[in-house]
Amino acid sequence: MMANSGALALIAWLLPIFSFLVLAIVFPFRRLGRPAAWFSTLCAAGAFASAVLAWRIQSVAAHPVHLVWPWLPTAGKTIADVGVLVDAQSTIMLCLVSLVAFLVQFYSVGYLHDEPAPALGRYYAYQSLFAFSMMGLALAPNLLQLFMCWELVGLCSYLLIGFWYQRPSAARAAVKAFWITKAGDVGMLVGIVMLYRLAGTFDITELHSMAASNALPLAGLSIITFCLYLGAMGKSAQFPFHVWLPDAMEGPTPVSALIHAATMVTAGVYLLVRTDWLFALTPNVLLIVAWIGAFTALLAAVLACVQDDIKRVLAYSTVSQLGYMMTAIGAGVASAGFLHLLTHGLFKALLFLGAGAVIHAVGSNDLPNMGGLARRMPQTALVFIIGTLSLAGIPIFGGYVSKEEILGAVWGAHLTGPFLLLMLVAGLTAFYMFRVVFLAFFGTPARVAAVAHAGAGHTTPPRVAHAALHNEAVVEGAHVNETPHAHEPPATMLLPLWVLAVGTMVVGVMSTFHLGGFAAAEAAGETAPGWLTPTAVGVALAGIALAWATYQMRAVNPESLANAFGPIRSAALRKFWIDDIFEGIYSFVLLGFSRIVGWIDRYLVDGVLNLLSDWTVQAGDELRGIQTGKPQDYVYGIGAGVLVLILLMRLVF
Amino acid sequence: MNGIPLLSIMTWAPFVSAIIIMFCARHRPLLVRLTALAGASVSLVASLIVYVAYDKTMAGFQFHEQLALVPSLGINYLLAIDGMSALLALLTSIIIFAGVFASWTVKERGQEFYALLLLLVTGVYGVFVSLDLFVFFLFYEIAVLPMYLLIGIWGSSGFVKPQGIFGKAMGRTGVGTKEYAAMKLTLYLLFGSAFILVGILALYAEAGSHSFSIIALQQVQFDPTVQKWVFLAFYIGFGILAGIWPLHTWSPDGHASAPTAVSMLHAGVLMKLGAYGVVRLGMGMLPDGMAYWAFLVGTIACINIVYGALSAMAQTDLKYVIAYSSVSHMGVVMLGAATMNVVGLNGAVFQMFAHGIMTGLFFALVGLVYEKAHSRAIFSMGGFGTMMPGIATAFTIAGLSSLGLPATAGFIAEFMTFLGAWSSAHPWWLFPGVIGAFLTAVYVLRVTKQIFWSTQSPDPHFAHLPDAQGPEWAALGILTATLVIFGVAPWIAVGTIDTATTPLIATLPKVAGASLGLLR
Amino acid sequence: MTFDIGMPMIPEAALFGLMVLVLLIGLIQRPASPALIGWLTFIGFAGTFGLTFFAREGATLFSGSFANDSLAIFSKKLFVASAALSVLGSLTLRQGSFQRRAAEYHFVLIASVLGMLVLASARELILLFVSFELMSIPLYVLTGFVKRQDAAPEAALKFFLVGTASSAVIVYGISFIIGVTGSTDLAAIPTALVSNDPMMLLGMTLLLAGLGFKIAAFPFHMWAPDTYEAASTPFVAWLAVAPKAAGFIAIIRLYVEGVGAATLVWMPVVAAVAGMTIITGNLMAIPQHNIKRLLAYSGIAHIGYMLVGLAALSANGIAMVLFYLVAYLFGNMGAFFVVEAVARSENSEEIDAFKGLAQRSPLLALAMLVFLLSLGGIPFVAGFWAKLYVFLAAIDRGMYGLVFLGAVLTVVALYYYLLVARRMYIEAPVRTERVQVPTLLGVVIFICILGVVGMGAWPRPWVDATQHAAASVFAAPSASTK
Amino acid sequence: MGLEPYLFLSATVFCIGLFGVMTRRNTIGILLGIELMMNAVNINLVAFARYTAMAAGFVFTVFTICITVTEAALGLAIVILLFRVRRTVMADHLDLLKG
Predict the structure, then answer these.
(1) Fewer CB atoms inside 10 Å of the end CB: C or N, chain C?
(2) Nearest neighbour of D97 by CB, restricted to C129, C174, C226
(3) Which domain holds residue D61?
(4) Within 10 Å of residue C28's Cβ, how many Cβ atoms?
(5) What burial letters (b/e) apply to D57-76, b meaning 16+ CB within 10 Å?
(6) Residue C232 clears pLDDT 90, i.e. is over it
(7) ipTM
(8) Residue D75 touches chain C, beta carbons under 8 Å
(9) Is B3 on the interface with A (CB under 8 A)?
(10) Would you call C153 and D99 a contact, using CB atoms and an 8 Å cutoff?
């Protein structure tokens, strides 16, 4: 039985890599496009199936399965393995990853149906590689494998953000994402390396038992955990490393759903969940985690309020929710963070895919271009609202319990500051999400670009079509009150939406009423005071109400609301200059410094060499002077030589 | 093994085919290429056999071959291979095999080109397999010298504006031209070999056993003072070839000017000769010398890593970027060696291999891009990914390996080196190392993005560019596959390396401050 | 005493006979056929070369004044072989004066070789000096013999003036030695040296200076470039090797043989001279435009390297110097013969005449490259081993600094050799037709290639031979055999 | 009178000869200087032979004289050849070959 869950997990893990290898190596097949897409999706489905089976078996057996093969030998021993560690956390994560991966791949068949065949094949190759890497991360039995998969998901993120690399913004966003997460990864690598010197192993199970038996020296452990947290900061977009995530929305929307909402960005949280016993040894670092998490949550929520791009709103919301999870971990209740990770994975994927459907229909990302879509695409609107309610933390919806747990945990840990921040964020979240809902699905569009005919049939992504077919003046001038060509997406796209919506609801209902597996979890961690739930829900409802009043009823003029928060709003529109700071570090510090070093290398280090060689040649030329050609000078030479020799002999004696 | 002199076959097969090319294949370009390919294939097969047949359980040197060259002076043609050299010989085989394909389109004076290339390779093999210092040195020089003609004849000139306080001298030396680059490279490396020669002779004289055999000399306990100075000589001598700062400046100019296959071979394999020399001769025979200078070696390696990466970032010529990246990556190799523990040294040797393949791939790709687009100016190119997806993909993979992405060989190497650095007596070496890794990510992706994954350049010259064709695919395929296979399955290499490094490290003196007894 | 072919002086007698024969033919046949004379001389040299193989080691004549030890036999082979090669190379000379006066040319040449042969065996100061002059004086004649008419006499005169002045220095030195030892026997020198008599040292120092002139060591080297540039190339090929070898033999005889531990007093002096010679030779070669001048300066540098081996003052050191001489013989003569071929075709001895040679005559270019590399000390050709061996010998004596200096300046040497290679291989040819190489010249070049590559690939027999030759130097009873 | 005065004499003559060689512009003059140097040697040899009572010095002197004569003859011949070609016998005009 145990071996079975290990084997199933392995199958789940290896199916995507099989798909990737087939697509990568058999490139004529890849270039066929749709067959490749279906092949990859099939593999993802298989992976999901075996992941669920593995989860079922594991939850019955309740014994972790540790299945490893030696990977890196040194000094006659093995210092690192690869394999799978099948336990409760990893199997649930595996299920989430494989589910979302499968759904997104399925969805993408519809979403990207006008993509040229080779590009589609490439897309699915990346998707398969991502699924493999993310599952490997979830299943990693040791920190080294975790790190490797961590980097690989970063790679896939880079590749998929830059999928439409012909767009300068996409190409730029891809490298930006890679660099910033890489900066964090460097820290994580340092942490792992340091931990190895301290503990002599990468293995999570061994480290855990060492930590449990106080066998780990505490000296320097804070630095190590902080380094690990650095990695998590990069990947999970914690302040100040959050800047890459909104830009990452340049990728296709399904990618955003999978990678930049549901799975990869939560890897940082997952890492901390996986190693919470290690962090527990270093409370000072946990405090940092909590504060940065709460601050990130607030910052991103504020930023989300001023975005007009639907995907960017969702992106900032993701950052904000990641801040939530991190705060929970910082409060020492990793399970709450993990729960939110799971529910958030479901409903945020739902929101992104829904947004994808909207974008697909409207042909634009911009909220002002939308409006009244609920009539034209009611199903999409419905599932989107389900997702929104989950995110807002309304009871019986997916995000409710996990959010309450986090708030309870933070309160319980006496982190009042972060708690207040999170409360504020809860209200802001409800506000900005319903702002999206009202702007997009209700009312009339404030500004409708005449892009409709580019609508569903465009071959290039919406923005490219937009830019290519119309110059801005035309777009600005074309005020149409309707979005006439918007319609419900095809079944390949709708189906995943419904699956996720149902999933969100099921989780929400089950958790709200303490059903199934949640009962036990609840019983363990119910320490929150009674006023907490009503307050949180109340704050959320207040946010919704404000959004309703502002964007639906127009009772509050959005302009005056904006004016009320004038300085903050203008700062938020500039993203609080954080992007500018990174830009400055890149252009001025890095590139500037590199230019200086480059100049030094060419003109000083190499210059000295040139000088020496030039001197040698010059010396030869100078020495020629003694060869005057006059025979008597030669005799002088002999005379001088004789003298020198005699002198030398005298010196000797 | 069974009396077949595999190592000699491996070493001399390219030489024989060079002779055949020189005298028998005149003016028949295809025959020239096929002969070269045959020579490279024989070596590849031989090195594969050696690599596979190498008995990991026995460790030590295997496949001995011996022939008395000058018995009165104790000079023998003594060949043998251990885990480290087996891997490096394999590296050489892969690179030259790919290099033959990569230079398939060399038009002008192809016969001489291939002959010289193969001659060079003979030297490289010779260094890796010879166990006699004299023969070692002999092959070493053979490996350096053909470079002059290879760069001088088939290279390409760049432009460097002389300025700064040494501008006058730079103007006179003709900086930027291929002739300058060829001469600088050759003389610089030969300058290094002067140090090596003195070191070798000093060992011979100090040992007093009238033997040049590395094994015999390893048994000798040299006086610490001797060790100190001879190690320094070896370090400078081999270090020049390994591109240690500040003696690295031959490398960017040389590699940028050299034709494709030569850059591949030189950056890919020859720089490894330097590092190999430091490890084999320096560490292997002068443990106290190594311990004495370890701090210097490691610190300079750190400078190399960061400085090389920053310099690479400053370049606008694609080939210079790759060339400087070699400087940076060779720093990782030297850092691994300086850690004086098994993990670090394994990382160093693995990095030799990984960087060899990676940079070989890089230079092959740069060559292809140049051949098709006739440009090396990074910021004039753009959006080639659509037109040459194969080249773009391979370049990206090479770049990822270079920035140490897992599942490529580069990661394993860097990771082990970092692990070794943190466990060494000077743990802070870790930080320049990882900073270098980050900077590499910056410059590599910047270049990759600019050239391949961005908007199509408006320049009409770049409107229709073909992807790699025919034999070029072979070069790219072999190198890319190697890079990934060894990244995914590092034990193939590390297990073999380990048999050589573990005994080597065991001979080193214990150093205060180093940790991890289990790695020693 | 019955005649036997292994007797001492048999080769000398044969050469003497040849000399007389050439003289007679020159007198009888007017104008003498240069081909006849040339071939006759060549065959004579070849025969003499053969005779040297029969020479019995250790045989002496004139109560020990003339001894055929292994060093003498070895060097005789060297002298005769190089002369034979030179004659073979000069057979194709077409200059008017050479055509008209071939008999004189060969007569004088044979006389000089005869001087060398005697010098190699001389164990007595008078014989040594006389044979030294017999070797030297013909060289002045030969320098001015054929070639650029305005420069040749100038070169001859310079060579002569400086040469005779240095002869005077030598003989002045010898006069002191004779005065102190009271004997002309070389064997008397070691005992006198031990006494530390300043006059003895003065004598020996003056003698060393004079011999330094002959081997063209700094600062006595100045005659060499001018002479090489002006004289005919086949002769220069020989001049650059044989007399220098003879000078080395003389130095070995006077300063090393039998001197024992006292010989070490010369070590710093020789080392200093060696170092300076290497530096100036190599540096001054850099700016040269004339290939013969370049080879002259590089030759000076090579003398420096040989002096490094000599400075070791050990059996190995001597052997390595001999090995170096042989390697230098092949490499240098080969290079000069290629120069001759190119110069004849291009009418220029400038380095630029080599432009694009690789595309015009690949084999000729390859040959030149091999010779240059051998001179530069690159593996698989003779020069590599030569250089390594002398360094090895010096290191054995702990002369790290000198070896390092030598090794570093090898890089400078390679710089100018590579500049020639650059002309041949990298630069485009001015003309495209092949360089016409006379068959005989080709043969000589090929022999030199064989020598260079053969020594490079399989140095063992040569090392054995030179070590055998050097062994006799230290075989004397008073010598320490290291 | 002992040996030393002779040695001093010979040294003086040698130096005068050398001085001549170094300073005379006319090549014939230089030749004369060389002759002086050789004669200094002869003085030396004879003096040594006289005071150490051995014949070798005398014998050597005979050889030296012979060789000096040879050299003088050859030198004059070269000077004449040079004059025919270059119309000068001045040493400092001989700088066609240099550098």
Answers:
(1) N
(2) C226
(3) 4-93
(4) 9
(5) beebbebbeebbeebbebbe
(6) no
(7) 0.87
(8) yes
(9) no
(10) no
Neighbors of chain D with 3 or more C-beta pairs under 8 Å:
A, C
Query: Distance, in angstroms, between D57 CA and closest chain A CA?
Result: 24
* C273 neighbourhood in chain A, CB within 8 Å: 645
Q: Choose among B396, B292, B261, B290: nearest CA to B348.
A: B290
Enter the tokens of residue A530.
């009674």
Q: Which residues in chain C touch residue D41, judged by CB atoms under 8 angstroms apart?
A: 168, 171-172, 174-175
Instruction: Tell me the two tokens of residue B52.
Output: 């596979």
pLDDT confidence of residue B514:
64
- Contact criterion met (CB < 8 Å) for A74 and B313: no
Residues of A with CB below 8 A from B519's CB? 74-75
CB-closest option in C164, C184, C225 to D75: C164
Of C168, C225, C229, the CB nearest to D34: C168
Q: Which chains touch B (3 or more CB pairs under 8 A)?
A: A, C
Residue A527, pLDDT > 70, answer no
| Domain spans, chain C | 266-482
| Entry pTM | 0.90
Q: What is the pLDDT of residues C319-354, one digit of tens each?
A: 888 999 999 999 999 999 999 888 888 888 888 888
In this complex, which of C410, C418, C459 lies closest to B70 when CB atoms are compared? C459
User: What are B94's two structure tokens?
Assistant: 């892969």
Domain count, chain B: 1
**Domain range holding B345?**
6-154+173-519
The 3-state secondary structure of B71-140 reads HHHCEEEEEEECHHHHHHHHHHHHHHHHHHHHCCCCCCCHHHHHHHHHHHHHHHHHHHHECEHHHHHHHH
Interatomic CA distance for residues A462 and A485, integer angstroms: 14
Q: Do B152 and C426 touch (CB under 8 A)?
A: yes
B246 and B306 Cβ atoms separated by less than 8 Å: no
In the numeric block, which tokens belong to residue C16? Answer: 């003497």
Among residues A258, A241, A245, A222, the alpha carbon closest in space to that of A295 is found at A241
Give how many domains chain D has, as a whole number.
Answer: 1
Task: Let me know: does B74 contact B211? Beta carbons within 8 Å.
Answer: yes
Residue D63 domain flag: yes
B16 touches chain C (CB under 8 A): no
Within an 8 Å CB–CB cutoff, is residue D9 touching chain C?
A: no
Report if residue B164 sits inside a domain: no
Query: For the segment C263-276, what is each residue's pLDDT rounded down to a tens digit?
Result: 677 788 888 889 99
Residue D43 resides in a domain: yes
Pick A632's closest partner by Cβ from D22, D97, D98: D22
Report the alpha-carbon distance of residue B120 to residue A152 in Å, rounded.
38
Q: Beta-carbon neighbour count of residue A116 at 10 Å?
A: 13
Contact call for residues B234 and B137 (beta carbons, < 8 A): no
Instruction: Quickly list H helices, C91-195.
Output: 96-100, 102-121, 125-143, 151-181, 188-194
Structural domain includes residue B165: no
Is residue D99 a part of any domain in this protein?
no
Q: How far apart are CA B409 and CA B421, in angstroms?
A: 18
Q: What is the pLDDT of residue A518?
A: 58
Q: Do the domain assignments include residue D88?
A: yes
DSSP letters of C306-323?
HHHHHHT-SHHHHHHHHH
Closest by Cβ to B201, choosing from C391, C426, C463: C391
Residue B160 covered by a domain: no
- Residues A350-406 have pLDDT tens digits of 999 999 888 888 888 888 777 778 788 888 888 998 999 888 888 888 888 888 888
Q: How far is B212 from chain C (nearest CA, A)?
A: 11
**CA–CA dist C262, C190 (Å, integer):** 7
C55 φ/ψ sector (left φ>0, alpha ψ -120 to 50, else beta): beta
H or E element: which one contains C60?
strand C59-61
Q: Which residues of D touch C169 (CB under 8 A)?
A: 37
